[in-house]
Specification:
alpha/beta; Metallo-beta-lactamase, Chain A; 7-stranded mixed beta sheet; 5-stranded mixed beta sheet; 7 helices; 12 strands; globular
Length: 258
């Protein structure tokens, strides 16, 4: 795990696996943790890390309901969790899914944790909308397409845009159950204006982006989705994302959308 200051009020935490991003955003005497790292030792380190850095975590926020984005409760079990209305609906419709998926990951990689994941009573946020933190506001923007739920979070006062599973430099667009090509493309077009206004763009996986690189990935992703619609299994992948793992993801996209 590594920590990187993006602004005096923003700390980026990057997990040692999957380049998974979590972001702490502070205003005054309040801070929110958006998404989460994955490994137990990383989660265990967060309370002391944020305390030493002067980030008093008063709440958790998740960009969407995929299990690798909702583990903040394991670090801050008493902190309330806020999510988009679409994510709250997904959590209610899929009770225990995140915990089961986490157990499958832990079993595969022989990971031991001190406690199970529990996600009771997430607060549903209207999206588009605003979320107050201290004397500032976080902008909430809808991001359906990868899944049926989700939101991007823009801290405009410090130029930081948090995307969840969009614009990854290491992953192609992934269409999961509940998502669709059309919704994914609509989200990308919606994100273009936000990317242009930001100075630091944080995808869920792959590391920090500047606006120029983020816009280039956005164009590559739109081209891939167009090709997926037109050519199905023969669609070309973005050149820098043609690994064996991403070819598996492409095959899964084809199976779900054909």
């Amino acid at each position: 795990m590594r920590a990187l200051a993006l602004h005096e009020d923003v700390l980026l935490i990057e997990s040692g696996i999957w380049h998974t991003a979590a972001v702490a955003i502070r205003s005054g005497n309040e801070a929110f943790l958006v998404d989460s790292p994955i490994l137990p030792e990383e989660l265990d380190a967060l309370p002391d890390l944020f305390a030493q850095a002067g980030f008093p975590i008063v709440g958790l926020v998740a960009t969407h309901a995929d299990w690798d984005h909702v583990l903040g409760r394991l670090a801050f079990p008493d902190a309330p969790l806020a999510v988009a209305e679409t994510t709250a609906a997904r959590l209610k419709a899929e009770p225990g899914a995140a915990a089961r998926n986490l157990r499958e990951f832990d079993d595969q990689w022989y990971v031991k944790r001190n406690s199970p994941l529990s996600l009771p009573g997430a607060e549903a946020l209207p999206v588009p909308g605003l979320l107050e933190v201290g004397d500032q506001e976080l902008q909430l923007h809808p991001t359906e397409g990868h899944t049926a739920d989700g939101m991007a979070i823009f801290a405009q006062w410090c130029g930081v845009l948090i995307l969840g599973d969009y614009l990854s430099p290491v992953e192609i667009p992934m269409i999961c159950v509940g998502g669709s090509i059309s919704a994914y493309k609509a989200t990308l077009l919606r994100l273009r204006d936000l990317v242009a206004k930001a100075t630091s763009i944080v995808p869920g996986h792959g590391g920090l982006l500047d606006p120029v690189r983020a816009d280039a990935i956005l164009n590559e992703d739109l081209a891939y989705l167009d090709a997926l619609e037109k050519d199905g299994p023969d669609a070309s992948l973005p050149l820098a994302r043609t690994t064996a793992e991403q070819r598996k993801s492409h095959a899964a996209n084809v199976a779900l959308t054909s």
